[in-house]
TrEMBL record:
This is Heparan-alpha-glucosaminide N-acetyltransferase catalytic domain-containing protein. Pfam families: HGSNAT_cat (PF07786). The chain crosses the membrane at residues 19-39, 51-71, 92-109, 115-134, 141-165, 181-199, 227-248. Residues 9-235 form the Heparan-alpha-glucosaminide N-acetyltransferase catalytic domain. InterPro entries: HGSNAT_cat. It comes from Methanospirillum lacunae. Keywords: Membrane, Transmembrane, Transmembrane helix. The keyword DNA-binding does not apply.
């Protein structure tokens, strides 16, 4: 078996990311139809609620795998230590981009239900926290499961809006995208654990046949540009809906 170059892009990860971003576009289209009362479809429970959670979980866990790859490739060969600054820099960048989403949703939604701590802020914050868990390796899944169960079993108290990032929020808080650290950082940690297992030292621990490489090529294309697609897809969807339905109540 030929050794995989350590800085290779892995088509299966790009394809998984491409599938996740495609699912997100589909869910947001359905959500928009429901939110603006353009079509009678329910996204707060049933199939579409499960679809939305599955999409977010896939997106966040893949981000965890990607951080693991970056960590394994950045580790020095002698000490196996990983520089922390690149992860802080990347995390701050994602949080900053996330606040562009905050600004955009504030304008589009006229200050109601806009995003304060959405999936980009979550992934950015998780990326900053990730180096604290590198030493766990595959066992990062343990705190991950604990965090998820905490969010699932325990009803977090209401509190001030500045604690929003933790999962504590005002009783009347609503948002079109709210993914706090509890429980979603747990999903990120499980992704990290999977990354340590599947890509030790930044290399595949498994073989991907050539036919699978070819089959995954098309879905991998959006995965290579997932951040850009995430940022532009909602304005494009809203523009299309405006063309189809005319003026949308509660928008603009």
């Amino acid at each position: 078996m030929t050794e995989t170059p350590v800085h290779t892009r892995y088509v299966e990860l790009d394809a998984a990311r491409g599938i996740a971003i495609s699912m997100m576009v589909i869910f947001h289209l359905v959500f928009d139809l429901s939110f603006f009362s353009l079509y009678p479809v329910e996204t707060s429970h049933g199939f579409w609620r499960l679809f939305g959670y599955t999409t977010a979980a896939l997106f966040v866990s893949i981000a965890g795998v990607a951080v693991t790859l970056r960590a394994e490739r950045a580790a020095t060969p002698v000490t196996k230590s990983t520089p922390v600054i690149p992860f802080i820099r990347r995390g701050v960048f994602l949080i900053g981009v996330g606040f562009l989403v905050t600004l955009g949703t504030f304008v589009f939604l006229r200050g109601e239900g806009y995003v304060l701590f959405g999936i980009l802020q979550l992934i950015g914050t998780s990326t900053i926290l990730a180096p604290l868990f590198f030493r766990f390796g595959r066992k990062a899944a343990i705190p991950g499961v604990i965090i998820i169960l905490t969010g699932w079993v325990i009803t977090l108290p209401t509190g001030p809006i500045w604690l929003l990032w933790t999962g504590v929020h005002p009783a009347d808080y609503i948002s079109v995208d709210y993914t706090p650290l509890i429980p979603w950082f747990g999903v990120f940690l499980i992704g990290m654990a999977a990354g340590f297992w599947l890509y030790p030292l930044g290399r595949r621990s498994f073989r991907v046949p050539s036919w699978a490489d070819r089959m995954l090529y098309i879905p991998s294309l959006p995965g290579k540009h997932s951040l850009i697609i995430y940022l532009v897809h909602q304005p494009i969807l809203l523009f299309i809906l405006t063309v189809v339905y005319g003026k949308i109540p509660g928008l603009w």
